[in-house]
Design goal:
Number of domains of chain B: 2
CATH topology of the largest domain in chain B: Methane Monooxygenase Hydroxylase, Chain G, domain 1
Number of helices of chain B: 9
Number of strands of chain A: 5
Oligomer: heterodimer
Strand content of chain B: 5-15%
Shape of chain A: elongated
CATH architecture of the largest domain in chain B: Up-down Bundle
CATH class of one domain in chain A: Mainly Alpha
Distance between the termini of chain B: 34 Å
Largest interface: A-B, 50 and 51 residues
Structural class of chain B: mainly alpha
Largest sheet of chain A: 3 strands, antiparallel
Shape of chain B: elongated
Structural class of chain A: mainly alpha
Radius of gyration of chain A: 20 Å
Strand order of the largest sheet of chain B: 2-1-3
CATH class of the largest domain in chain B: Mainly Alpha
Number of helices of chain A: 7
Strand content of chain A: 5-15%
CATH architecture of one domain in chain A: Up-down Bundle
Radius of gyration of chain B: 23 Å
Largest sheet of chain B: 3 strands, antiparallel
Helix content of chain B: 40-55%
Chain lengths: 175, 202
C-alpha cells in the first residue's frame, strides 16, 4: 500500500476542534458532523479539521496523548518492553504528521513533540526489523503483530510477504 | 503491488525459460539412434549409451523422468557439495549473481536430481541468511551500490519492490514540510543506540 493511502485511512480519525464560525449540521456519507457553534469544542474527522484549519476557521485541540509527558512515558515503555506497546492512537504517525504540519501554532512545544514521536517511531522500526530477521532466520511461519499500526506494518511490505512467498515456493516445489 | 512475474512459472514465463537454459551434465543410459549430432566431439550417427553430455535443463527434465529414463542427470556444478559448503559457511559473502543469474529458480529444478535433499536445504538456508542483507539494502541502498550487483534475479526483484516502497515512505515522511525527524544532535553525533533485539528475542 502507498503511504498516502494509509494516510487517507488515518484521516478518518476523530479529533476535537474549536470552531470560530456557526453552521448547521453537515450531512456526510459516513455520518453527520456538527452543528458548529463558535468556540464550543466539537469532534470532527481529521481531514475536516485540517481543511477548516487551512481556511483558518478553527483551532485544533491537541489530542491528550500528544503531550510531552505522555509521550515520554510511551517512549520509556517502548524502550523497556521487548514487544510492541500499545500506541495511544491507531494512526499516531499520521495524526502527528498532519497536526504538526498544518497546526503547529495550536500545539505548544511542537518541535519537542516532533522529536519524541520520531524517536518512538525509530525504536519501533528497529524492533520490526530485528523481529522480521529473527522470523525469517528461524524458519518461523507465523508471527503475532500486536499493537502495530497500519503505517508500521506497511513499512515491511512488500518485501516480507514476498520473501515468505518465495520461501514457500522453494519449499513447495517438487523434489 | 503486482506480484513478481515468475511467481509461479508458467509456459510463457520468460524467467522460467531463461532459468532452464542452463547446461546440466547428464549421462545417456540407452543407445539413441540418429542423435549423434548432439555430441559435437564425434561424427557418428548414433549416440551410444554411456555418453556424457551437457544438455539444457528443460531437456534433461523431460528425458530423465518417465517410465524409461533416457538420461541420468547430475547436479549442475553450483549445487554440488563444494559450492554448497561455501554457501553453508557464509551465504552473505557470496556473489550469487556470478553463481547463476537464476540461482533459486534453477535450484528448484536441480533439487529433483538430489535424492538426499541437501540442495533443498541449501536453497532455503541461503535465502533465509541473505534476507537480512537484502532488507537492509532495500532500506539504505545508497550506502553501498556495489552490493546490489551480487543478487540473483529473484533477490533483485524483491530488492526493487522493497526499495520502491521505502522511497515512497521516505517521501511521505518528509513531504508537506511537516518533517518528523530526529533531533539534529542525535544525527550529528550518531548517538542513537541500536536496540539489541537479537539478545532479547532469545
Amino acid at each position: 500500500m502507498n503511504p498516502d493511502e494509509v494516510e487517507f485511512l488515518g484521516e478518518k480519525q476523530f479529533i476535537t476542534i474549536i470552531p470560530t464560525f456557526n453552521s448547521n449540521t453537515i450531512h456526510l456519507i459516513t455520518g453527520d458532523v456538527g452543528p458548529f457553534r463558535a468556540s464550543l469544542p466539537i469532534r470532527v474527522p481529521l481531514w475536516m479539521a485540517i481543511n477548516l484549519k487551512q481556511q483558518q476557521k478553527c483551532k485544533i485541540q491537541q489530542p491528550d496523548w500528544m503531550e510531552i509527558e505522555a509521550l515520554e512515558t510511551i517512549k520509556e515503555n517502548e524502550k523497556l518492553s521487548r514487544t510492541f506497546t500499545k500506541m495511544p492512537s491507531e494512526h499516531y504517525m499520521i495524526e502527528a504528521k498532519l497536526l504538526l504540519g498544518f497546526a503547529s501554532d495550536d500545539i505548544p512545544r511542537a518541535d519537542e513533540i516532533r522529536t519524541i514521536i520520531k524517536d518512538i517511531w525509530d525504536i519501533r522500526m528497529s524492533k520490526i526489523r530485528s523481529s522480521v530477521d529473527v522470523l525469517v532466520k528461524n524458519a518461523g511461519s507465523y508471527a503475532a503483530l500486536d499493537h502495530l499500526t497500519i503505517m508500521e506494518i506497511n513499512t515491511i511490505r512488500p518485501i516480507l510477504p514476498h520473501a515468505l512467498d518465495q520461501i514457500y515456493r522453494i519449499k513447495a516445489s517438487p523434489r | 503491488m503486482p506480484l513478481p512475474t515468475a511467481y509461479s512459472p508458467n509456459y510463457y514465463s520468460l524467467d522460467d525459460i531463461l532459468a532452464t537454459q542452463e547446461r546440466t551434465p547428464c549421462k545417456f543410459l540407452i543407445n539413441v539412434p540418429k542423435m549423434g549430432n548432439l555430441n559435437p566431439s564425434t561424427i557418428e550417427k548414433d549416440l551410444p549409451a554411456g555418453t556424457a553430455l551437457e544438455l539444457p535443463m528443460w531437456l534433461v527434465l523431460e528425458m530423465s523422468t518417465g517410465r524409461q529414463p533416457i538420461v541420468l542427470p547430475e547436479l549442475p556444478k553450483i549445487y554440488k557439495e563444494a559450492y554448497r559448503e561455501i554457501l553453508e559457511a557464509d551465504a552473505c559473502a557470496v556473489d550469487l549473481h556470478k553463481f547463476n543469474l537464476y540461482f533459486y529458480e534453477l535450484g528448484s529444478y536441480a533439487k529433483r536430481f538430489d535424492r538426499k535433499g541437501d540442495v533443498h536445504q541449501t536453497l532455503l538456508h541461503t535465502f533465509r541468511t541473505r534476507f537480512r542483507q537484502l532488507m537492509d539494502l532495500a532500506d539504505n541502498s545508497i550506502s553501498d551500490p556495489s552490493v546490489q550487483q551480487r543478487l540473483d534475479t529473484l533477490e533483485r526483484r524483491l530488492f526493487k519492490d522493497g526499495y520502491n516502497a521505502r522511497t515512497k515512505l521516505n517521501a511521505w515522511l518528509v513531504e508537506s514540510g511537516a518533517t518528523i525527524e530526529a533531533a539534529n544532535m542525535v544525527i550529528n553525533h550518531k548517538k542513537r543506540k541500536r536496540l539489541n533485539m537479537e539478545d532479547l528475542m532469545k
